[in-house]
Design brief:
The chain is of the alpha+beta class. The protein is built from 4 helices and 3 strands. The protein is 44% helix and 14% strand. It has a 3-stranded antiparallel sheet, with helices on one face. Helix 2 packs across helix 3.
Amino acid sequence: MSGAKTRRGLPIGPEQCRMARAALRMTIAELAERAGVSPATISRLENDHPCGPGDALGRIRTALESRGIIFIDGGSPGVQLRKL
């Protein structure tokens, strides 16, 4: 991905969350459990609604990154799956 920049520390968007879950074949419930948030929080994020406490996005991001997701922004935000 030429010109892509990692998005470490930046907020994740609804599309990125859905893409990351799809790449990992992870359900909303599984991600919620790993992130320590409710499934409703994941659904709100993925539907572009406020998703609760300020640390919820960070916890979701950390849970996805720990499974190998890399958040990128090369003009249009996306995700990449690294081999663990």
